[in-house]
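Page 37, continued from 36.
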């Protein structure tokens, strides 16, 4: 069990290091960095490399933003095989809708409960 925690920490940390390098070295904005990491996750899933990474690192690969790209492509591919082009379009939203909905709902509740500084 300790070994799985270790690898989750290492892989998740490496993904974060890549994001930090994009900020510091390439001077990318947060939006560009997040978008790039989502695209990297999508490309890795398109080549079938992200699922083995999830099997190896667990939460170290599912928690970072790259997992969102993985989810988009994974949903598009699985639904595309079943329903064709329409499945590609709907599959992306079907897989990620619960996470996006939760982020919106909890963000709204947080905004109601706490006063932002500024």
């Amino acid at each position: 069990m300790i070994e799985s925690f270790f690898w989750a920490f290492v892989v998740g940390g490496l993904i974060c290091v890549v994001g930090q390098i994009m900020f510091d070295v390439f001077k990318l904005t947060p939006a560009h960095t997040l978008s790039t990491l989502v695209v990297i996750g999508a490309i890795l899933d398109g080549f079938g490399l992200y699922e083995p990474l999830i099997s190896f690192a667990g939460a170290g690969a599912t928690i970072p933003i790259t997992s969102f790209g993985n989810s988009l492509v994974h949903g598009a591919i699985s639904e595309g095989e079943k329903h064709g082009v329409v499945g590609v379009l709907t599959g992306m939203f079907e897989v990620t809708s619960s996470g996006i909905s939760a982020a919106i709902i909890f963000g709204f509740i947080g905004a109601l409960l706490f006063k932002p500084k500024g």
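Residues 40 and 57 are 17 Å apart (CA to CA). Flag for discussion at group meeting. Residues 2-113 form one domain.
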